[in-house]
Amino acid sequence: MINNNLDDIVKIQIAISDPALTEDVFNRLLMVIAPPTGTGTQTIGTTALISSAKELLDFGYTEQSEAYIAANVVFSQDPSPDQVAVAVRQVTSEAGAETVTYESMATVLNRAEGAVSFYGIDITEFAAVSTDLVDTIGWAEANEKLFGFTYTSNPATLPVQNTNYNRTFAVYAGAADGYAADTQPVVNKYTSLALMAKCFCYDPGSETFAFKTLATIVPSLIGTTDKNTLDTNNVTTYLRYAGKNITQGGRVLGGEWIDVIRFRDWLKLDMQTNVFNALRQNKKLPFTDDGITVIENAIEATLKAGVQVGGISPDFYDEDGALTPGYTITVPLASSLSEAQRKSRKLTGVKWTARLAGAIHAVEIEGYLTF
User: Fold this and answer.
1) Residue 60 φ/ψ region, left for φ over 0, alpha for ψ in the -120 to 50 degree band, beta for the rest
2) Which of 66, 148, 321, 331 is least surrounded, with the fewest CB atoms within 10 Å of its CB?
3) Which DSSP symbol is given to 285?
4) Alpha helices, H only, 146-282
């Protein structure tokens, strides 16, 4: 016998959800490099993604080039990124090998941002030029990126005068242990790059930039005075403790922890995306308590993820047994909003607070032995 079509009674249409995704940018580095000096089997263009240092050889770089050495440091870390973005800084004029003029850092970084997603910036090949260093700092601060640079000269003399930066960190990697002052290891100039390469492999909020062991990098051998000076200036160091080489510090020059800056940037983008998806995936969100709750749930999804990854503290009880929540969200009742507010179709008065989980970087212990 032939069955009638069930659509006559129960008609179902299933739409496949197509959410906007949070860009996975917080694990990607951008290295600004000079053009290749040779002719390779492939043409690099102005921006490319590479998965190993050897790929640069195909583009005409040599094993002695800064681009290759820097990429080799990146992919030597454990863990190491799957890919790194490289932006080739174009030559604008050349009058001999000693007088090469390049396009501005803003030009190359703006072009790179239009071509590939990235979060961390390295300009090792050009960091010795103070104007390039300052220009890159300014661009990173204005464009919500993270910039790290390394210096190896006098630990008390930073290459930049102004240190009120919230997206720039410095690493001192001079006075390499076991090396004379005039024979410092070349790889040490890539210490900040190595640190970003390693830490970017961890989810934002799950990491700290301190206590990291960096492959190929040689620790510094400095005295207490220099260590205190560098710590006061919020400069990260790479030192040896108990037979282990580890980073110490982990702050941006402005004083905040690097991992907090990275986690905050991730939190902002993830929350924006979640709320955007809530607006886009519904035919209409009514200006009612139910509609406002949808927005509240989208915000909470990000905050819950922040707790799970370790960036936001979970709920805890204080010494009196009172519950302290890791985060709170406050949204207005629809009835509390004026007619003009509802007519504008802009929801205001939405607020949240969250307690950072932080990280333990030092421990003080008191103990007593008794008979």
Assistant:
1) left
2) 321
3) -
4) 191-199, 224-232, 258-280
3-state DSSP assignment of residue 70: helix
Taking only Cα atoms into account, the Rg of the chain, rounded to an integer number of angstroms, comes to 26
CA distance 146 to 252: 9
Q: Is the omega angle on the peptide bond into residue 79 within 30 degrees of 0, that is, cis?
A: yes
Alpha-carbon distances, residue 371 vs 338, 367, 368 (angstroms): 73, 14, 10
Alpha-carbon gap, residue 18 to 280, rounded angstroms: 10
Give residue limits of the domains in the chain. 29-260, 286-371
- Give the Cβ contact number of residue 125 at 10 Å: 20
pLDDT in tens, 303-337: 999 999 999 999 999 888 889 999 999 999 999 99
Exposure b/e, 268-281, CB count within 10 A at least 16 = b: ebbbebbbebbeee
Provide the CB-side half-sphere exposure for 231 (13 A, CA).
12
Number of Cα atoms under 13 Å in the Cβ half of residue 178: 6
Burial class (CB in 10 A: 0-12, 13-18, 19+), 203: middle
What is the pTM for the complete model shown?
Answer: 0.92
